[in-house]
Design brief:
The chain has 429 residues and is an all-alpha fold. It has 15 helices and no strands. 54% of the residues are buried. The radius of gyration is 22 Å and the shape is globular. The protein has a single domain, classed as Ammonium transporter AmtB like domains (Ammonium transporter fold, Orthogonal Bundle), CATH 1.10.3430.10. Helix 8 packs antiparallel against helix 9 and helix 11 packs antiparallel against helix 12.
Length: 429
Amino acid sequence: MSIKKIIGLLSGLSLMLPAAVFADEINGADTAWILTSTALVLFMTLPGLALFYSGLVRAKNVLSVLMQCFAIACMVSVLWMFGVYGLAFGDGGELNKIVGMGYFMMSGVGLDSVRSDTTLPETVFFMFQMTFAIITPALIVGAFAERMKFSAVLLFSAFWLILVYAPVCHWVWGGGWLSELGFMDFAGGAVVHINAGIAALVAALVIGNRKGFPQTAMPPHNMTIVVTGASMLWVGWFGFNAGSALTAGSSAGMAMTVTHISAAAGSLSWMACEWIRYGKPSVLGIVTGMVAGLGTITPASGYVGPIGGLIIGLSAGVVCYFATQYIKRVLVIDDSLDVFPVHGVGGILGTLLTAVFAAESMGGLGLETSIGSQFVTQAIGVVATVVWCGVISFVLFKILDAVIGLRVSEDEETEGLDTVLHNERGYIL
């Protein structure tokens, strides 16, 4: 048989094999799904989170929140291209366990570049991970809403992205030390939710309560906008969790399933807590329970089955509800839009429960270690994230407060940030 015929035979055989078999080859189905997921995750921030948060604040601060979310999305996108992507997902050489390097101005990323260990173009992976980097500092906005200077918001978000988000992301997803330890975080329990929650708690403590809190009632100005934004978050979260499978296969399907179940269960359990305690269920309660269910299932979404998703969601609604009550009423900490008790507490709860419900005996997809051993690993990851984020966030806030000041004046706070900082007023629907 001639060499030409052998080459032809091998070429024909290759067409019958799945594309995923070949390293460094792009799979069209996977790429199409992650392109879709990227749009869904960006949709979570703009307009989902922006509307959700802007409806929760008072009418005089609506545009300020929208502006903060929009500006953070723009700024993080540029920083991600300049080099933060490399800090999170580059090869750090001798420092690889701590932080990555490279990809400055997307150097080395061309039209045909394929992300290692995936069947995706590097540009698609770059964009997908960028949307996670966008929503994480945007979540923190809810903690200092209605009282922080816009300049301070931008500076804090920029430095926090570089010094907190990128290293933790590298530890977990970029081949860092938590990844080597076997830490399980499918879609961002530690990287996104614990990080954002702890930074939010530090922000509330350093910046202080809003003028009049807790004596003065500060109800949401427009619940219609809140529910609209929350509904967008629910839809976008499918890209967040199912997209983190990085393939268009069974793993993405299960992640989407448990995500939806957990969101529904979290809504119902939070609603039940309010109904029992106050005699009436609230719209704010049911949508907040949904967000708690979604945040709590995030780290476990690719590892647990439907029963695990149900129990995690039910637990999220109850635990995050009482955490919110404790932070607001007992500790009297003005985390304006409940970022820490919902995302921080939910992220911690979900990260720890991953060790339990990922076990095959609990309906999960199987653990390589025992539940106890994995629980210890999960706890190490939680503590490391809390300490790193807490310390760096505190230092950043203190430095910014000393240099430019964090808060607007009391008179400016009374007038509202829309007029004071942006010389505009939003129309109330």
